[in-house]
Amino acid sequence: MDLQGLYDSIGAAGVALVGVAAAAIYLCVKNAVALGWMGWGFHRHIAALTRDPARLDTETGARSGNPLIRIFSEAVRAGGGRDHDALRTELAFLFHKHFRKVNRAMTLLRLISVISPLLGLLGTVLGISKVFRVVAGQTLVDPALLANGIWEALTTTIIGLAITIPVLCLYYFFRMQISGFQVELMEYAGRFGADVPGGR
To answer: What is the pLDDT of residue 55?
Structure first.
């Protein structure tokens, strides 16, 4: 099938859905790699500190390329003698500061999961209106033409749902990973911050 035939089958909404699908694949792969790398580096850092707490260097950690290590180091440096609520507030601020790129990608994933079925529905409505326009111009309606036109119109809904379902599942999986990082950071920053007298 050539490009013109593909366009005739899925229409403008279908072409937009193909672009949305490509963006979704890119964002999902990017988030999976980024969060996996961050978690791996952070857990190695914590394991090294657990074996030898004297290796704790918040100045170097605050300049790390890993956002989780930066958040941890800044929270530990600021957290000496802090209570639970103050540490939670500090971590929320640091997450907002260092996780901007990840949060932007997560927002885009959520947006894709919302607009994909709507684009699919738009393609279906446009396709069915096109079928009825063709049928209205004929005196004798061919049932095969009608069925084929409706099938083509429904294709965009199928594409929209095929994008939305996995993207939504991955979105919540990534959210759970980020929530897990927040819980771990709260625990480790509280544990190591207790050994830092007076914070900053």
So the answer is: 82
